[in-house]
Structure formats: C-alpha cells, structure tokens
TrEMBL record:
Pfam families: ABC_tran (PF00005). Belongs to the ABC transporter superfamily. Energy-coupling factor EcfA family. Its EC number is 7.-.-.-. It is a peripheral membrane protein. Keywords: ATP-binding, Cell membrane, Membrane, Nucleotide-binding, Translocase, Transport. Forms a stable energy-coupling factor (ECF) transporter complex composed of 2 membrane-embedded substrate-binding proteins (S component), 2 ATP-binding proteins (A component) and 2 transmembrane proteins (T component). The lineage of its organism: Bacteria, Bacillati, Bacillota, Clostridia, Lachnospirales. PROSITE patterns: ABC_TRANSPORTER_1, ABC_TRANSPORTER_2. This is Energy-coupling factor transporter ATP-binding protein EcfA2. It is found in: Cell membrane. InterPro entries: AAA+_ATPase, ABC_transporter-like_ATP-bd, ABC_transporter-like_CS, ABC_transpr_CbiO/EcfA_su, ECF_ABC_transporter_ATP-bd, EcfA2, P-loop_NTPase. Residues 3-243 form the ABC transporter domain. It is an enzyme of class 7 (translocase). ATP-binding (A) component of a common energy-coupling factor (ECF) ABC-transporter complex.
C-alpha cells in the first residue's frame, strides 16, 4: 500500500463570494504501516485533506495515486478505494443505530455484499481487535460508555478490512479513561501493519504515539516529519496557534538555565532519563 499526494488544491464554492481555498499544493507520500498524526487548528484543512484520501472529495487540481494508480483516472474504482481507506468520522457514535453492537459492526461488510458467515467472522475479529468484552456483543450500543461506543464505531470500519484507517479526532469529548482506551486500541492496531492516520488538535495527545506528524496550517502542509523534528519548531508552532508537548518547554527551560538536558525529549520517560543522567 502506498499513497502519493501530488500538489493537490481544493477550493470550496469556487467562483462564488464564499470561495475558500482549503488545500494549497499539498504533497506527501504515505507508506504501509505508518502511524501518522495530522495536526492543525480549526479550519486548517485536516478534514478536507483526509476526505481526499478516500475519494470523498475530488481535488480541484493535482493528483492522488493509490498503489501507483491515479484515482482520478476515468474508470478508477472509487468504491474499492473507499473500502481500502476506512474513515472514522468525528463523533462516530452518532452513526451507531442497530439494536445490538454485533449487528452494528456487521453493517459495513453486509453492505459490501459479503456472506452472513463472513460478516459475522469479521465482526468477531474486529470487536476483538478493539478489545471489547464479548459479554457486550449482544447489548445495545447505547448502553456503553463514550470510549466503548467509539471502539464499536472503529470496529465497524475495521470489519471492512481497510488497508488505511483514518480517524478524525477519535478522542474528542472523551474523559481521560476513554482517551487511554482509544490510544491503547490504536497501539494494538499498529502491530497488525495497518496504516493509521490520526487527526487531532492536540500535539500532547499524539506526540508519544505517532511516528510522523503532519502539521496543516491554512491549507498548507507546513511540517511533515518525525515528532522530534517537528517539535524543534516549537516557536513557529506557537505562532500558528499550536504547541509542542509540555515536556519540550520544560526541557528547553532547563537548557536555558544551564543544564545539559536532552531538549529532544518528548515523553515524560525520556525527560526523566535525561534529568537523571545529569544528577
Ligand atoms: N462544506 C464547506 N463549504 C465551504 N467551506 C468549507 C466547507 N467545509 C470546510 N470549509 C472551509 O474549508 C476550510 C478547511 O476546513 P476543514 O474542515 O477541512 O478544517 P479542519 O482542520 O478539519 O477543521 P476542524 O478541526 O474544525 O474540523 C475552513 O476554512 C472551512 O471553513
């Protein structure tokens, strides 16, 4: 699996007084198994960008290649692309509607025309992947906690066996327990080799999990690098209303105060190790 995004632009309401240039010459390459955090403040273009990756939006100009094939070429199978690139929308629990959790997770594969047996097998596999206890499978999804509902919604997308899983703000509105549940699911999923793109407002949330951070600002892909390399730009990030993890600031303050600490530390563990080394 690979996705090549080549200089895409997207303009909402082109030619009207509401025209909005939401993506500006965005280019990147996404490879199998990557765990990417897509960060930016409200209105920076994150949702618009991810909706291009599974063909929900068509770029005004530029190209996207999935496994080397131009998805805008005449005759390209968009339906298949949508099953390969699974999208978990914001507040996905609003789309749970079946009477039981199990039926809800079966809905996607059923829609793909798979046999009842295959749908049920996939539902079991994906509910297992998101770590939901079997005792809940035949309960109503509405009896679950916020974190559990989100996990069911993620299982619903996983049941379609996507190669890429995109999650738009999957922890929004959850309490810390629910947030930890989601990150532990994502950590388990990454071991399966699936490519994960996590959209978030919060550097703190993604910093310790992802391998790569893409920062969007006003429709431009401003940074696309490892978390450490991105956080080296913490001053520029602040200028666009974002912040590096708190640890980055603490380590920089210590450095400025004359201590020889690792200013690239982005987890509490790395910071502790670096501080202990100088004591
Ligand atoms: N349907 C639409 N019609 C017109 N403009 C839109 C539409 N959807 C988004 N926009 C505009 O395009 C820009 C990018 O929006 P987008 O939703 O992609 O940003 P975002 O980073 O996902 O924001 P959020 O974090 O709030 O979801 C914004 O200026 C937004 O107002």
């Amino acid at each position: 699996m690979s996705i090549i995004v080549d200089k895409i632009n997207y303009i909402y309401e082109a030619g009207t007084s509401f025209e909005r240039h939401a993506l500006k010459d965005v280019s990147c390459v996404i490879e199998k198994g990557e765990f990417i955090g897509l960060i930016g403040h409200t209105g920076s273009g994150k949702s618009t960008f991810i909706q291009h990756l599974n063909g929900l939006n068509k770029a005004t100009s530029g190209h996207i290649y999935y496994d080397g094939q131009d998805i805008y070429e005449k005759g390209y199978n968009m339906k298949e692309l949508r099953s390969k690139v699974g999208l978990v929308f914001q507040y996905p629990e609003h789309q749970l509607f079946e009477s039981t959790i199990f039926k809800d997770v079966c809905f996607g594969p059923k829609n793909q025309g798979l046999s009842k047996q295959e749908c049920e097998l996939r539902a079991f596999e994906s509910l297992k992947l998101v770590g939901l206890d079997e005792k809940f499978y035949y309960n109503s999804p509405f009896d679950l906690s916020g974190g559990q509902k989100r996990r069911v919604a993620i299982a619903g997308v996983l049941a379609m066996k996507p190669e890429v899983l995109i999650l738009d703000e999957p922890t929004a509105g959850l309490d810390p327990k629910g947030r930890d549940e989601i990150f532990s699911v994502l950590e388990n999923l990454r071991k399966t080799g699936i490519t994960i793109i996590l959209v978030s407002h919060s550097m703190e949330d993604v910093a310790t999990h992802v391998d790569r951070i893409m920062v969007m600002n006003d429709g431009i892909l401003k940074y696309d690098d490892t978390p450490k390399n991105v956080f080296r730009h913490h001053k520029e990030l602040e200028e666009i209303g974002l912040a590096a993890p708190k640890v980055t600031y603490i380590m920089n303050d210590l450095k400025n105060a004359g201590f020889d600490v690792d200013t690239d530390a982005i987890t509490i563990e790395e910071a502790k190790k670096s501080i202990l080394e100088i004591l």
